[in-house]
Amino acid sequence: MASRNTPKTCFTMLIPEVEKELQSFPERRSIILCGIETQACITSTTLDLLEKGFDVHVVADACSSRSQVDRLVALNRLKQSGAFLTTSEGVILQLLQDSSHPKFKQVQKLIIEPAPDSGLLSLF
């Protein structure tokens, strides 16, 4: 959504350019997030979006941190704050909604192999 030329210097991605883009889709109330430095950027962005009334879905196995402790504590904090934690496979299937979706067979090839252990089970 944000231009590739938008410098990212703050932890949150809810910068004016992104807010403007979100306002152009007022019917959308759900946001899917993934990225790096879960304890900083993902947390700041999630908390800002929650404050604005969005449903935030954090793709836990697509978020990283330099340390597993920071990652797990941040994901737990986000869950306690009202974000929904999901997985890559879960969000992909929710976006498709139905196995009759024209892209289902193509996507199924991507998710047929189980993902490696992400170290997230202790969070649940």
UniProtKB/TrEMBL annotation:
- Tell me the superkingdom of the source: Eukaryota
Cross-referenced Pfam families: Isochorismatase
SUPFAM superfamilies of this UniProt entry?
Isochorismatase-like hydrolases
Can you give the residue ranges of the Isochorismatase-like domain? Answer: 8-89
Gene3D superfamilies associated with the record: Isochorismatase-like (3.40.50.850)
Q: Coiled-coil region(s) at which residues?
A: none
Q: Which InterPro entries match?
A: Isochorismatase-like_dom, Isochorismatase-like_sf, Isochorismatase_domain
| Protein family (similarity comment) | Belongs to the isochorismatase family.
Q: What is this protein called?
A: Isochorismatase-like domain-containing protein
Look up and give the organism this protein is from: Staurois parvus
